[in-house]
Structures are given as C-alpha cells and as structure tokens.
Write a structure and sequence with these properties.
Helix content is about 40%, strand content about 30%. The chain has four helices and five strands; from the N terminus they run E-E-H-E-H-E-H-E-H. It has a five-stranded mixed sheet. The model has no long low-confidence stretch (mean pLDDT about 95).
C-alpha cells in the first residue's frame, strides 16, 4: 500500500481536505478524524478531494458515510471529488453513488455549491 497524504485548504467559501494514496483499514480512521477536525470549524462546505486516491476499501467508505451523516446533521454540504474508477466503481456497486454528492473536479464541486 502507498503512504497516505492529507492536506487541508480552508477559505471563506469551503474547506477542501485533499487525500492522496490508498485508504484501507490502517488509515481510514485518520481520514475520518481529519474530516471531523475540519467540521469542528463549521465550514460553509466540506469538500473531500479524493482525485489522487487509488484504492478505498470498505473501512474507507464507512468513514466517508460517517462524515456524510455528521455534515448532514450540521447542515454543511459535503462533496466528494474524484474521477478515479477505483472509487467510482465500488461506490456504484454499493449504491453509494446515490448517497454521496460526487463531482469530477473541485471547480465543478464549487459550481454546484453556488447553485
């Protein structure tokens, strides 16, 4: 498995948590905690940029579902950004494509927020 990198960019309009690498049982809690930490600051929107994630197992998807529930409870839009088949295919098979708001780019995610 490749190492996981997480970075955060916050602005007045949104907070982007960029994740790169592979999300598996060993790191999924770290991803969840990083997203939860940003929720503490009550961003206008939370965007998880997963464009550079090459693998995500069930623990990773569980962490994302947990964050989605917390953002929904807080009334904060939560958007995933990815075009990676390694994420889109399992999301589709699990029916998570109907649960998550997914966009191919950060720009399209931001455009969706202003509509």
């Amino acid at each position: 498995m490749s190492p996981l990198d997480i970075s955060v960019t916050a602005s007045g309009t949104d907070t982007v948590v960029t994740v790169s690498g592979e999300i598996d049982l060993a790191v999924s809690d770290g991803v969840r905690r990083a997203l939860e930490e940003e929720l503490r600051f009550t961003p206008a929107a939370l965007i998880a940029d997963l464009s550079a994630v090459t693998f995500c197992d069930s623990s990773g998807f569980t962490a994302l579902v947990q964050i989605r529930a917390k953002t929904e409870e807080a009334g904060i839009p939560f958007i995933l950004v990815t075009q990676e088949r390694a994420l889109l295919r399992p999301m589709s098979l699990l029916g998570l494509d109907a649960v998550f708001n997914v966009h191919p780019t950060i720009d399209s995610a931001r455009d969706a927020l202003v509509r």
